[in-house]
Design brief:
By secondary structure, this protein is an alpha+beta fold. The chain is built from 3 helices and 4 strands, in the order H-E-E-E-H-E-H.
């Protein structure tokens, strides 16, 4: 019985890696803090564990670590309120404001 459980665990882990893997694009993402309602839907879809909750005595904030983010966009797709943006779209927006 333990052997079957171990095999089952390995199969589930492999499936999760396959489903949760994303393709690097080189574009980094960030969270628009005033827009984010901290629903946490972005955290489980990030296959690189780049999204974390930073807790301070006054507030909690979701942050995307630029050293871990590969720019796959899975977090942006998962966000129901469009609180995640790519660095390229932020730069594009700044260029349009000039």
């Amino acid at each position: 019985m333990k052997r079957i459980s171990g095999i089952f665990f390995v199969l589930i882990a492999l499936i999760m890696v396959g489903v949760n893997s994303c393709q690097p694009t080189g574009s980094l993402y960030s969270i628009k803090q005033p827009v984010c309602n901290q629903c946490l839907k972005c955290i489980p879809v990030c296959g690189y564990h780049a999204i974390t909750m930073v807790t301070t005595p006054t507030k909690d904030t979701l942050v995307i670590d630029p050293n871990k983010c590969v720019g796959c966009g899975e977090c942006k797709i998962a966000c129901p309120i469009d609180a995640i943006t790519s660095a390229s779209s932020q730069n594009h927006g700044e260029e349009n404001d000039d």
